[in-house]
Write a sequence for this structure.
């Protein structure tokens, strides 16, 4: 039997509940030893709801020899200090995204992990989901011939007009609107497609981006001192020659379509946040009638769903997460056990952080921005080869 690896969560906010919900999916592999939040009311609510142990301080959590992996689920401004403290205490770290707020900060974290001979991995982990693995396998198997172009939308609707004040996590934490608007939707969301695209098409080499703050007054309860861009669009050129246009906004209507366009057709997933999202394929419209139908109806016949590489491992009920947030931690734990690199390792996380910063803050880089970081090719999941 596999000995479970001890995990502790730092940051008991909105998303910590989703992590806790997903951890039992990996019961054999991971054991939650406890949690800490510097806000004692939040910590108490989390631990009471889930029946978990509350550490009295970050130092106490980091001093627990049963904890091998620290899950950093703090808000992004606290990612770097908490990750550094955990590495300094000799813990492996799985960080929520973005790994850090700047490329340089991300590189410093990676250097510290290497100096300490510890693993550093980062969310998002939807690349490890059934839907993403099915898409990737279809690309590898030539389902659309040579891939050329990607259109990825991460438009989340007008969040500031939505009733987000009523969005509560399982232990009662409100969705952190203030923080999300200050961090920016690109920092918050781009990773969900960048991880897929970088894994499939190789490191990004050049980024040409534009971002803007379109709605400065988000009508938050407290004013936003530094609202981040709420719209970005970037063109990413990959090593292998594929070009991707990635759009992020909390302005345009909800649309999370990811389309990979090849010489022989297009693959599409409508929701990269859903591990069970079908992957559909549509062929290229060639003849006159087919092109007419594409103009009028969007294509000849329905786009065909491809068989999933395996049935989705999670079956969420209404209101439950559609992503297994703990799969990245389980992947890290398996990598530690097997002494192999983890698929979401520090090089990959630095690369995603760098490209994300280029998308959200293009003015910080030359134009086009040349991506410095790279990563070793990532292996598909064993069950998706
Ligand atoms: N909200 C979402 O829908 C969502 C979804 C996926 C991922 N994420 C990511 O998860 C992370 C957390 O997001 P959230 O929505 O849960 O934020 P949140 O603001 O609700 O929770 C963050 C928690 O971290 C705690 N914290 C901050 N610094 C700390 C420190 N030094 N020590 C201990 N506790 C500390 C805060 O008190 C707070 O309770 C972010 O990186 C975010 O990008 C959020």
């Amino acid at each position: 039997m596999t000995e479970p690896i001890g995990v502790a969560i730092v940051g008991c906010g909105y998303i910590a509940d989703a992590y806790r919900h997903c951890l039992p999916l990996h019961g054999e592999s991971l054991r939650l030893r406890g949690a800490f939040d510097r806000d004692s009311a939040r910590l108490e609510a989390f631990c009471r709801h889930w029946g978990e142990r509350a550490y009295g301080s970050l130092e106490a959590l980091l001093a627990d020899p049963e904890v091998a992996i620290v899950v950093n689920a703090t808000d992004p401004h606290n990612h770097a200090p908490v990750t550094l403290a955990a590495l300094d205490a000799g813990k492996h770290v799985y960080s929520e995204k973005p790994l850090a707020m700047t490329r340089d900060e991300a590189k410093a974290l990676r250097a510290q992990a290497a100096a300490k001979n510890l693993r550093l991995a980062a969310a998002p982990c939807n690349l490890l989901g059934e839907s993403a693995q099915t898409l990737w396998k279809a690309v590898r198997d030539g389902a659309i011939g040579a891939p050329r172009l990607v259109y990825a939308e991460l438009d989340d609707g007008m969040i500031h007009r939505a009733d987000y004040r009523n969005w509560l996590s399982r232990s009662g934490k409100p969705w952190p609107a203030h923080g999300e608007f200050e961090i920016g939707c690109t920092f918050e969301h781009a990773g969900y497609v960048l991880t897929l695209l970088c894994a499939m098409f190789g490191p990004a080499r050049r980024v040409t981006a534009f971002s803007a703050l379109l709605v400065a007054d988000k009508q938050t309860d407290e004013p936003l001192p530094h609202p981040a861009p709420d719209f970005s669009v970037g063109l990413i050129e990959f090593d292998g020659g594929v070009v991707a246009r990635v759009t992020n906004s909390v302005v345009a209507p909800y649309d999370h379509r990811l389309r990979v366009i090849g010489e022989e057709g297009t693959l599409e997933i409508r929701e990269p946040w859903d591990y069970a999202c079908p992957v559909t394929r549509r062929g290229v419209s060639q003849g006159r009638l087919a092109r007419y139908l594409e103009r009028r109806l969007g294509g000849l016949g329905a786009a065909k769903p491809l068989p999933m590489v395996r049935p989705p491992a999670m079956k969420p009920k209404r209101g439950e997460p559609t992503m297994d947030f703990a799969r990245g931690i389980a992947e890290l734990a398996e990598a530690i056990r097997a002494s192999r690199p983890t698929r979401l390792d520090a090089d990959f996380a630095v690369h995603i952080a760098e490209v994300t910063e280029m998308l959200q803050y293009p003015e910080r880089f030359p134009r086009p921005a040349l991506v410095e970081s790279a990563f070793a090719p990532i292996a598909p999941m064993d069950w998706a080869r």
